[in-house]
Each structure stands twice: as structure tokens, then as C-alpha cells.
């Protein structure tokens, strides 16, 4: 139970924050500053894309009490939708050989397609399957796991079980070189998009009536119902939005890595789950912080000891579970 | 009976408080429960009765104050530990194991008392004495004919009786009954009250009862404590409580409108 | 109880005892055991023996998963991982000890049990403390980590190529010991019987577990956690105990599986498909039944064996349709759809449904609805 913070507690809290930030400077002992900066940018970019998946996952859990293990599948579908759009536009000569404007437009269209497919899949999944198992955690987990498997298999049927190479407009490949710090262009795009989405989600949550309802719902679902709002419609809307965000994240990931596989959804889900556990179930800001932590830790460790990159994240998760069992920003229930 | 002179009370709370966020749900409540008596706690909805119960049974941790059972400080003990000491509670919403049989519901309480729960090498078939005892407790609450059915098929009143049988099987010294007649139809209420009266008449158990229907517990109680907005405003014999002007204003006045 | 009429409870108990050895369930088990023992001697077909051995192993693995999922109401996505830990224990010890001897097998079994117990205790102590749903998330992450470790720690596990090894003495594939009633007695046959004995013992252990006081408390916790706590049961301990027990049995199943194949690789014993298979089997058989594991494992393993034939049939029917070809290749898709439909519309599984009918009969016999 949280007691009212007094001055001493506030001081300790700031000390803890300072310590938390300084931990991220530790890798500097083993990595030279230039590489460190490059890795930091890469880590933040990865973190932002993870955040896109984790944000939906955490809000869906907080509001609807649904752990959606099919969330990774939205990510993969978004990537494939973007891939398909870029392939089609390349047929028009827009992508590999197009002008800057055509390049930007085709990337935007790819993201839009991902957004749409994510929304549609989210609508379908929520209405057809998940609505039948509200309130039953066990069935939710079982059924979303099954849905995730089916969605990944359908990708293999429609495209191919093997890796695909994503065509990326020239203007988006390559990198900036700022005083020897090489920064991949698309990473900058990813960070900008991630920050914008975080700001947007926070604005919706804090400023709009819908946001107030959602926050109230995360606190106490019954309150929302008694206030007379159509809770089902809100659930569907939030689920679609979460799915769409994950899909956009997936399509950006595809463009960023220039390669996609049907298994990318599962891999992303693992990371997103770690992020959500670290950040605290239901907290958007927690997920944002968690995503940054996971992205950074992954990149630093991958540079130093490549095999331990995922292990390092699991270690962070375990440590956080030890110190704060409910996650960084999670509330005890 | 001259039990009121007993040296240590069976259960006692001292300045017990709990805060949720900024809201103080229970505010410095000091309550004394003497052995072998029936004390009722009343108060309007939201007065903190159930919260106080949750503190006594260990579901909530207090923000301040302490709880003592037979002179022992149990403030830091978890709910199973308190059950083992002899505090058994019922819940406001009926709380049984719906998919298990009626007999099994009671048998689990007996098994908990025998402390063989973590045994995984014995066959439950060898625990016949527990089954026989469980049946005996069902007979006590007149539920024996229903022993074989799943608890979910019982009527609401029967489920309440089953819950009391479960509680009795724990052989607690202190029974915490949270609105035992809540949600019951009018015909079912007298049977439950009669059951409580019988338990009290054995003279072997102490009962702490939460209720918000004042008239119901007037005849039953040895003493009545009145809660309002988390504070204890009165703790006396039923007659004195009924005559207390503060209570009349705070509870009876406001309560009638709500009821 | 002298001088008193026997209570209905006592009469029912006597009734159940009198037919202990004539219950259909008991007779079916006896017949099944007889078939498993006599099978390879009567009908020496390697394909059938291979199928039956795998069904036995998976039946026990699924039943042990059912202890965790069905009886305790916890989802562990690490059940496949524990299976893999057991399999790799056997594979690595047998591979790296030259020459391999009987005590190495014993050592591998003990190691599998030890590792899985420690890992299960750590995972469950960490995440079950918070909320059961955390357990699903944490196990998913840890299991994936182990899967990747299986690939990447190639100095030990040989990565993607997997580990092949020889079993000691009479279990070795090239050992041969004459013929018995016309059946060749060889290493494979002895491994089959070893699997049969160990699986039977493990299965009895699982059934005893759910019929022990712990099993009853687990059911109670699954039904109503708050009430169980108020009765004085420390829920957390029971959850940890059941999770550790189930995981331990899974690792032993993995050890047997490795012995049967004499080969392991990350995908077959650590990957997600294995976990999905176990999930599908437990759903089809019926949650919270233990015996459902046998039916679920049999159904899926038999289906897997015949699917390639079905696939060929489908292809010959639609020789031109590209999409049909791809669909036929992806039979996991069919399993996935079957799985979702089972969770939605057949949540009790085969054994669960049968049990409900038996329960209804029992209530009718006792004269009350």
C-alpha cells in the first residue's frame, strides 16, 4: 500500500531514479563512446518499435483484463501488409527507383495498410473470439495462443514460410554521419514515430473524454459500466487501436530490418511481454520506460556478448519482479 | 452468565485504521470481543463494516493499530495463520466451492484443521474419518440429505447453511459472520437466524456478526457496536444502543431512508 | 459408529469399495496395459511400436501438464521447455561420456529431475507470488530463451544440428539378444519396455497425486481461491508444489523421449510446436482429468502419422490449385483451428464430457437431482 510520500521519500525516489539512469552509462566502461552512442540510438529505435506493440498489450490488459497472446501476430501481419504494399508500388516504379516524394508516399501507404490490416484483424479477433471468453483468463490465454498460431500459419500459406526481403525506398536507407556517429536514417524515423505515438496516446488518455473513461476502466471496470457507457464498443475500439499500433510497429520493423519472417510475431511478443512485465500491467508510461530499457539493454549486450542479449532482458525482468513484483509503474491489486 | 469478568478478551483491536489512497475506510477502531458472547457490528452501507472484517481476518493489512487474539498480537499474521489460531469467517457474498460436492466442501475444512494439506502420498480414500465428521456437520445444519450434490446446485439459503457448516467444521473459537442473511429470500432468513441462535446457545463459540438490518440482531446480540464513516461511535448493550441519540441520528435516521 | 445406522456416506463408500476392481475404468486400464505389454511381441511392426512409444511418453507429459493447467488453473508455457531440459540431460550426458554406461542413464535422470525442480521452483516462486497470469508471461519468455539457448550455445548443444548419441549396453541400438516366440529381442524393444515401465509408474504417481489431500486442495483453490485461503490453506505453496511436480514429470518424459530417438535438437524438444502440441492434446483429452492425456496424445500422434498420407490425397484431388497445395502443407493450421474450436465449444474434452455423464448417473443413483 502506498502511503503519502514525505520529503525523505521523495529524496530517496530521486536517488533511485538517478541510480536507474546511471546504470545505462555502465556499458561505457566496456564500449567506446562513439559505438555507445550508435548503440544507444539503435536501442532507442528498437525500444520505440517494441513500445508500439507493448502499448496495446498493456492497455488491453488493464482495461479489458485480457492477456492477448495474439498481439505478436498483429505485428507480423503489419509487416507483411507493408511488404505487400511496397512490392506492389515497386511495380509502378515508386520504391527502388522512385523520387523522394514517391518514396515517402509509398512508406506512408505501407504504414497505412498495416494500420488498416491491424484494425481489421483486431476487430475480427475481438468480436468473433475474445468476446466469448471475457472474464476467463485461462480460456483467453489458451485461445489467443491458438489464434496467434493460426494467424502465423495463414501468413505462411499466403506468402511463404521462408524469409522475405522488404524493398525499401532509397531515401530511407543509408545513414547520417554526425562526427563519426553513424545513425541509420530509419532509426531516426522510428524514434520520431515512437515518441509521437507515446505523446499521442498520453494526450488521448489525459485530455479526451474517451481517455478518462479508459483510465477509469483500468482502475475499476464496474464504474465505467455503471456510468452508462457502452463498454463493449469501448473494448472493441481499444482492441482495434492496440492491434493497429502493433501492426504499424511490425511494418516499420520490416522496413527497418529489410527482412521479415512469419516467426517475427512470436519473437516480438516475447519482447513485448517482458516490456509489459517490467513496466507494470496497464501502465502506458511503464511500457514506454520498459521498452526503452529492453531496447537499450538488448543492443548493449548484443554488442558485448551477442548470445546473452535475450538472457540479459530476462535477467532484468527477474530483478524487477524481485524488487517490484507489480512492475515499475504497476499498481498492486 | 458471569463471563464478562474474564481477564483477557478473546479478540481485541486497538486503534485499528486502514487507508486506501486518501480515503480512511476504518479510523482508529478499538473493539473488545469477550469470549462466548455475540457481538454485532452495524452501520450504514460504506461505514467500513466489511473492511473491518477483512482486517480482522487478515485479508487487508492495517495502516495503523493492532489486532490481538487471546492476548497475542496477530496484526502481521496472514489469513491462513489466523484460521489456524481459531478465527473462521464467512463472506458477504456466498463463498463456497461450487463445483465440489457439499460433503467435499466441509471435508476440506476438516482437512485444513488436521494440517495434512501438503501431503501428496496419501490417498484421500484413506481419510474416511474426515468424511464421516463432515457428514456430522452437515447434519448439524440440516443439510445431510444434500451431501452428494455439487454445491452449485443448492439454493441460496442452502449455500448459506453450507457455508456455516464449513465454518463450524473449522472449530473456530471466533466466528466472523458477514451479513449471513444477505441476498436471501424472506422465508429463508428465520432458518439462518435459528442456526446462529443454536450455535450461540451451545456456549462454546464467540460470534462477531456484521449486519445492517438493526431489528434483526436486536434480540440475538449481547452487545452491538455501531460504525459510521469508519469510526466506532457506540459499543453497548442492544437496548442502550437503540436508545443512544447519536446512533439514532447517525444510523437509524439515515438508515431508514436507505433501507 | 457402533449402535448407529451407517450414514449414506458410509454406504456409498462401501458400495464404491465393493466394485473397486470391477469398474469399467479399471478394467480398461488393465486391458490397455496388457495390450502395451503384448503388442510388440504379437505384432512386430516398427512403425506401430514407434507410434505407441511416443503416445505413452506424451500421454504422461500431457497428464503432468494437466496437473498444472487443469487441476491448479495455471498456464505454464514452460512445460515443453522442461521436456527439453530432460531430453538434453540424457542426450548430452550420453553423448559426452565415452563409453556410455548404465549409471550414466541414471545420472541423467537424476540431473533432469534436479535441474527441472530448481528451475521450476525459481520461476514459480518469482511469478506465482504476483498473479497467476504473470506465470504465463514469464514462462513464455523463459521457454523462448531456452529455445534460443539450444540454438546458440552450440559448443555444448551442437546448435541446430542437434545431438545424437548411443545408449548403454542392452539398450543400445545394435545390441541383439536372440528371438522370443519369433520376435527379435533387440535394444529398441528393451527401450520400449523401459519406457512402458517408467511411464506406467509416472502415470500412477500422477493419479495418486490428484487423489491425495493435495489434489483435493488444488481443486478447491481452482474453484474458489478466497475460500481456500479462508479455510487456512496457503494457496501459494500449493501452486508452487503442483507446478514443480508437473514440471519434474515433464522433464522425465523428455528424458525418455530422447532415449527413444537417440537424438535431440532444439526444435523437436524445446520449440513452440512441442508446447502447442501438448496444449492441443490436453484440450482434446479434457482439462482436469489426467486420463484425458492418454486420449489426447493418442489422437494427435495418430493424426500426425496419417497426415502425410492425407496430404498426398488432397494434392492428388486438386493437382492444379496452388493454394490447396500450400494449405495441405500447413497442417498445423488445421490443428490450430481445431484447437480454437475445442476451447470454445468442447471445453471439457472427451474425458471431461464422459465424466460429466458418469456424475449425472451417480446423482441419479443416489436418488437426488
Tell me the strand percentage band of chain A.
Answer: under 5%
The CATH architecture designation of chain C is: Orthogonal Bundle
Span between termini of chain C? 28 Å
Q: Largest chain interface and its two residue counts?
A: B-C, 48 and 38 residues
Q: How many domains make up the 3D coordinates of chain C?
A: 1
Number of domains of chain A: 2
In short:
The complex is a heterotrimer of chains A (333), B (259) and C (369). By secondary structure, chain A is mainly alpha-helical.
List the helices and strands and how they pair.
The complex is a heterotrimer of chains A (333), B (259) and C (369).
Chain A: H1 7-23, H2 33-64, H3 71-91, H4 100-129, H5 137-158, E1 164-165, E2 175-178, E3 181-184, H6 185-207, H7 209-219, H8 221-226, H9 231-257, E4 259-260, H10 264-279, H11 284-304, H12 309-323
Antiparallel strand pairs in A: 1-4, 2-3
Helix pairs in contact in A: 2-6, 2-7, 2-9, 2-10, 2-11, 3-4, 3-5, 3-9, 3-10, 4-9, 6-7, 10-11, 10-12, 11-12
Chain B: E1 11-20, E2 23-33, E3 38-42, H1 49-57, E4 64-69, E5 72-73, H2 79-85, E6 87-89, H3 102-114, H4 128-140, H5 156-169, E7 174-178, H6 189-201, E8 206-210, H7 214-218, E9 223-228, E10 231-236, H8 238-243, H9 245-258
Parallel strand pairs in B: 3-8, 3-9, 6-7, 7-8
Antiparallel strand pairs in B: 1-2, 1-4, 4-5, 9-10
Helix pairs in contact in B: 3-4, 3-5, 4-5
Chain C: H1 8-18, H2 24-42, H3 46-71, H4 79-96, H5 102-127, H6 132-152, H7 154-157, E1 163-164, E2 176-180, E3 183-186, H8 187-210, H9 213-223, H10 225-230, H11 235-261, E4 263-264, H12 266-270, H13 272-285, H14 292-317, H15 322-329, H16 331-345, H17 349-365
Helix pairs in contact in C: 3-8, 3-11, 3-13, 3-14, 4-5, 4-11, 5-11, 8-11, 9-11, 13-14, 13-16, 13-17, 14-15
Task: Give a structural overview.
- Chain A is mostly helical and 333 residues long.
- Chain A folds into 2 domains: 56-262, no CATH class; 283-333.
- In chain A, 72% of the residues lie in helices and 4% in strands.
- Chain A is built from 12 helices and 4 strands; from the N terminus they run H-H-H-H-H-E-E-E-H-H-H-H-E-H-H-H.
- In chain A, strands 1-4 form a two-stranded antiparallel sheet. Chain A has a two-stranded antiparallel sheet with strand order 2-3.
- In chain A, a hairpin with a 2-residue loop joins strand 2 and strand 3.
- In chain A, helix 11 crosses helix 12.
- Residues 1-5 of chain A have low confidence and may be disordered.
- Chain B has 259 residues and is an alpha/beta fold.
- Chain B folds into 2 domains: 1-86 and 174-188 and 203-259, 3-Layer(aba) Sandwich (Rossmann fold), CATH 3.40.50.300; 98-171, no CATH class.
- A 6-stranded mixed β-sheet of chain B has the order 6-7-8-3-9-10, sandwiched between helices. In chain B, strands 2-1-4-5 form a 4-stranded antiparallel β-sheet, covered by helices on one side.
- In chain B, helix 6 (189-201) links the parallel strand 7 and strand 8 (206-210).
- The longest helix of chain B has 14 residues, at 156-169.
- Chain B is globular, with a radius of gyration of 19 Å.
- Chain B starts with 10 loop residues before the first strand and ends with a helix.
- Helices cover 75% and strands 4% of the residues of chain C.
- In chain C, strands 1-4 form a two-stranded antiparallel ribbon. In chain C, strands 2-3 form a two-stranded antiparallel sheet.
- The longest helix of chain C has 27 residues, at 235-261.
- At the A-B interface, loops of A face loops of B.
Amino acid at each position: 500500500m502506498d502511503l503519502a510520500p514525505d520529503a525523505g521519500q521523495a529524496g530517496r525516489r530521486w536517488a533511485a531514479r538517478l541510480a536507474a539512469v546511471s546504470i545505462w552509462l555502465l556499458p561505457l566502461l566496456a564500449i567506446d563512446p562513439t559505438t555507445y552512442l550508435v548503440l544507444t540510438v539503435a536501442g532507442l529505435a528498437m525500444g520505440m518499435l517494441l513500445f508500439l506493440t507493448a502499448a496495446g498489450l498493456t492497455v488491453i490488459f488493464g482495461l479489458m483484463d485480457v492477456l492477448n497472446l495474439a498481439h505478436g501476430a498483429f505485428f507480423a501481419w503489419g509487416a507483411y501488409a507493408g511488404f505487400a504494399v511496397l512490392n506492389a508500388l515497386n511495380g509502378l516504379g515508386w520504391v527502388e527507383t522512385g523520387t523522394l516524394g514517391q518514396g515517402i508516399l509509398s512508406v506512408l501507404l505501407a504504414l497505412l495498410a498495416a494500420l488498416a490490416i491491424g484494425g481489421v484483424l483486431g476487430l475480427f479477433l475481438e468480436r468473433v473470439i475474445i468476446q466469448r471468453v471475457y472474464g476467463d483468463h485461462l480460456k483467453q490465454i489458451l485461445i489467443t495462443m491458438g489464434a496467434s498460431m493460426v494467424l502465423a500459419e495463414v501468413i505462411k500459406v499466403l506468402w511463404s514460410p521462408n524469409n522475405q526481403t522488404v524493398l525499401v525506398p532509397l531515401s530511407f536507407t543509408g545513414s547520417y554521419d554526425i562526427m563519426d556517429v553513424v545513425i541509420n536514417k530509419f532509426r531516426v524515423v522510428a524514434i520520431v514515430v515512437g515518441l509521437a505515438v507515446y505523446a499521442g496516446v498520453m494526450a488521448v488518455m489525459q485530455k479526451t473524454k474517451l481517455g478518462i473513461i479508459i483510465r477509469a476502466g483500468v482502475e475499476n471496470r464496474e464504474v465505467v459500466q455503471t456510468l452508462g457507457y457502452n463498454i463493449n464498443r469501448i473494448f472493441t475500439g481499444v482492441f482495434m487501436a492496440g492491434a493497429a499500433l502493433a501492426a504499424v510497429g511490425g511494418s516499420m520493423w520490416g522496413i527497418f530490418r529489410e527482412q521479415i519472417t512469419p516467426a517475427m510475431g512470436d519473437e516480438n511478443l516475447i519482447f513485448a511481454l517482458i516490456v509489459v512485465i517490467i513496466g507494470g500491467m496497464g501502465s502506458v508510461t511503464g511500457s514506454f520506460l520498459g521498452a526503452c530499457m529492453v531496447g537499450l539493454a538488448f543492443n548493449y549486450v548484443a554488442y558485448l556478448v551477442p548470445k546473452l542479449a535475450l538472457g540479459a532482458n530476462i535477467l532484468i525482468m527477474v530483478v524487477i519482479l524481485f524488487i517490484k513484483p507489480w512492475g515499475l509503474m504497476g499498481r498492486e491489486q | 452468565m458471569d463471563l464478562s469478568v474474564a481477564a483477557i478478551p478473546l479478540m481485541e483491536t486497538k486503534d485499528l485504521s486502514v487507508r486506501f489512497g486518501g480515503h480512511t475506510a476504518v479510523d482508529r477502531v478499538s473493539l473488545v470481543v469477550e469470549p462466548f458472547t455475540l457481538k454485532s457490528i452495524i452501520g450504514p452501507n460504506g461505514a467500513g463494516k466489511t473492511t473491518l472484517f477483512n482486517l480482522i481476518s487478515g485479508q487487508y493489512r492495517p495502516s495503523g493499530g493492532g489486532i490481538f487474539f487471546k492476548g497475542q498480537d496477530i496484526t502481521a499474521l496472514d489469513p491462513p495463520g489466523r484460521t489456524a489460531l481459531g478465527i473462521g469467517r464467512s463472506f458477504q457474498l456466498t463463498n463456497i466451492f461450487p463445483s465440489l460436492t457439499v460433503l467435499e466442501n466441509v471435508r476440506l475444512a476438516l482437512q485444513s484443521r488436521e494440517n495434512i494439506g501438503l501431503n501428496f502420498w496419501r490417498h484421500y480414500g484413506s481419510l474416511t474419518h474426515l468424511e464421516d465428521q463432515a457428514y456430522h456437520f452437515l447434519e448439524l445444519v440440516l443439510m445431510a440429505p444434500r451431501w452428494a450434490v455439487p454445491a452449485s446446485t443448492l439454493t441460496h439459503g442452502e449455500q448459506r447453511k453450507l457455508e456455516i457448516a464449513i465454518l463450524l467444521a473449522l472449530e473456530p473459537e471466533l466466528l466472523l459472520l458477514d451479513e449471513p442473511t444477505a441476498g436471501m429470500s424472506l422465508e429463508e432468513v428465520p432458518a439462518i437466524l435459528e442456526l446462529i441462535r443454536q450455535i450461540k446457545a451451545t456456549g462454546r463459540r464467540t460470534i462477531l456478526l456484521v449486519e445492517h438490518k438493526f431489528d434483526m440482531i436486536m434480540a440475538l446480540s449481547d452487545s452491538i457496536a455501531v460504525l459510521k464513516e469508519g469510526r466506532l461511535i457506540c459499543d453497548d448493550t442492544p437496548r442502550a444502543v437503540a436508545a443512544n441519540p447519536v446512533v439514532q441520528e447517525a444510523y437509524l435516521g439515515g438508515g431508514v431512508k436507505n433501507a | 459408529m457402533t449402535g448407529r445406522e451407517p450414514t449414506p456416506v458410509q454406504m456409498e463408500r462401501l458400495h464404491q469399495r465393493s466394485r473397486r476392481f470391477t469398474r469399467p475404468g479399471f478394467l480398461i486400464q488393465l486391458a490397455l496395459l496388457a495390450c502395451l505389454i503384448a503388442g510388440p511381441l504379437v505384432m512386430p511392426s516398427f512403425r506401430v511400436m514407434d507410434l505407441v512409444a511416443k503416445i505413452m511418453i506424451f500421454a504422461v507429459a500431457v497428464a503432468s501438464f494437466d496437473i498444472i493447467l487443469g487441476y491448479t488453473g495455471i498456464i505454464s508455457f514452460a512445460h515443453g521447455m522442461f521436456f527439453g531440459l530432460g531430453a538434453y540431460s540424457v542426450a548430452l550426458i550420453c553423448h559426452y561420456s565415452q563409453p556410455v554406461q548404465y549409471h550414466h542413464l541414471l545420472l541423467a535422470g537424476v540431473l533432469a529431475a534436479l535441474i527441472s525442480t530448481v528451475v521450476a521452483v525459481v520461476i514459480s516462486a518469482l511469478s506465482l507470488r504476483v498473479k497467476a497470469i504473470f506465470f504465463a508471461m514469464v514462462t513464455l519468455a523463459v521457454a523462448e530463451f531456452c529455445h534460443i539457448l539450444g540454438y546458440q550455445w552450440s559448443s555444448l548443444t551442437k546448435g541446430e544440428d542437434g545431438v545424437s548419441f548411443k545408449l548403454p549396453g542392452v539398450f543400445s541400438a545394435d545390441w541383439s539378444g536372440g528371438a522370443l516366440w519369433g520376435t527379435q529381442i533387440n535394444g529398441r524393444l528393451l527401450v520400449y519396455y523401459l519406457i512402458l515401465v517408467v511411464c506406467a509408474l509416472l502415470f500412477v504417481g500422477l493419479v495418486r497425486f490428484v487423489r491425495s489431500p493435495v489434489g483435493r486442495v488444488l481443486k478447491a483453490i481452482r474453484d474458489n481461491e478466497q475460500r481456500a485461503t479462508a479455510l487456512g490453506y496457503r494457496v501459494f505453496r500449493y501452486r508452487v508444489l503442483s507446478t514443480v511436480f508437473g514440471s519434474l514429470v515433464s522433464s522425465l518424459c523428455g528424458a525418455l523421449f530422447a532415449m527413444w530417438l537417440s537424438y535431440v535438437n532444439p526444435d523437436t524438444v524445446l520449440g513452440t510446436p512441442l508446447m502447442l502440441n501438448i496444449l492441443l492434446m490436453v484440450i482434446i483429452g479434457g482439462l482436469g482429468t489426467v486420463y484425458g492425456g492418454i486420449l489426447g496424445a493418442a489422437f494427435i500422434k495418430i493424426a500426425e502419422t496419417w497426415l502425410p498420407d492425407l496430404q498426398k490425397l488432397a494434392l492428388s484431388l486438386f493437382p492444379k490449385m496452388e493454394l490447396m497445395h500450400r494449405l495441405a502443407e500447413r497442417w498445423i493450421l488445421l490443428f490450430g483451428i481445431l484447437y480454437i474450436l475445442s476451447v470454445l465449444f468442447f471445453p471439457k474434452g472427451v474425458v471431461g464430457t464422459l465424466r460429466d455423464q458418469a456424475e449425472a448417473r451417480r446423482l441419479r443413483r443416489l436418488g437426488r437431482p
